[in-house]
Amino acid sequence: MQQRSDRLNVSARSLNERTERTVLRLQTLALYGSLALIAAVVFGSLAVHPF
To answer: How far apart are CA 37 and CA 45, in angstroms?
Structure first.
């Protein structure tokens, strides 16, 4: 019974590590996406000369 519990624990730990990597990847993507959006707004506002 202990071996089954150990296998489940290893499986859960592996799933947790994969989930953490996925969350980190999504956070990095969101950060770069927001920086790209800010850069696009700044560049777009500099390209328009209203006066």
So the answer is: 12
